[in-house]
Each structure stands twice: as structure tokens, then as C-alpha cells.
Amino acid sequence: MASHPEEQTMSVQANKAQFERFLTFINTADKVLGEDLIAEGAIFHAPNSPEPMRGIDGYMAILSMMRSGFPDIQWTIEEIVAEGDRLAARFTMRGRHTGAFFGIPPTGNEIAVQAINFYRFAEGRIIEEHGQPDLMGLMRQIGG
Q1: Is 33 in contact with 25 (CB distance < 8 Å)?
Q2: What is the pLDDT of residues 76-101, one digit of tens each?
Q3: Model-level pTM?
């Protein structure tokens, strides 16, 4: 049975609202907030990991990896496109390279790196993410 267009619009709007909360989560690494937004069995496809990360602990590991090299990293949403249970977001990640990152010692360089990530929602929670950061651009900015 197909859902009504009004229901689809409401779920798209609800997913966008949840995504705004998700932005707060990634910028603060607040695990309690993350637990509210990320489904228990969520799958996160990260370019630096051959196997998907899973659940809140997997996402916290992704954030920890980024914050180890860029403790002050912040994500800004540049654009969101949403349809049905899916949402695409274009971000800019900004921070200062003050910790080792992929074996590169701290340079103190400021970074501004684009990322395009794709999300899938179910029952108001994120169940999947495909992350596509510009790692080449990031490495270029820190001298790697």
C-alpha cells in the first residue's frame, strides 16, 4: 500500500529535522544525543575502513578518528536534498591539524574540506550512511 504524499512530505521534513540534530551530534560528539538519532544496527560506510562501522559505537569511532587529528573539527551543512527515506548532505569540514592523522604529524594547518554523505532513515533514526569526504583534498591541505 503506497503512503499518501502528505505522509511522505511529513517524513521528509521529520528526517530533515532529525538531521539538524545529527549535525549537533557530530559537532559535539555527544554520545547520548547520538544514541537518540542512530539506530542500534545502523551501518556506516567510511572510506578509511574496508568493513562498515556499526551502531553508535561505530560512529563514535569515526568521530574519534577525525578528532584525533583535528580536535576542533566542525561540520557545516552547505546543502541538503531529501526524498522519501533518503537524505543527501554536502558539508564543509573545518579544523586545525593539531594531532597525528593517518600517520602525518600535526602541522597546525587549517583545513576546509568538502564531503558529500548519503543517509537512510527508518522510524526517525539514521540506519545507514555512505560518507564521501574529499580525503585527497584533506591530505593536500595537511601536507600528506
Answers
A1: yes
A2: 999 999 999 999 999 999 999 999 99
A3: 0.89
What is the per-residue burial (b if ≥16 Cβ within 10 Å, else e) of 48-68?
Answer: eeeeebebbebbbebbebbee
Q: How many CB atoms are closer than 10 A to CB 1?
A: 2
Reference 41, options 59, 61, 28, 18; nearest CA is 59
Contacts made by residues 17-25, CB under 8 angstroms, sequence distance 24+: 18/121, 18/124, 18/125, 18/126, 19/80, 19/82, 19/87, 19/89, 19/119, 22/126, 23/75, 23/77
Q: Is residue 118 within 8 Å of 130, Cβ to Cβ? A: yes
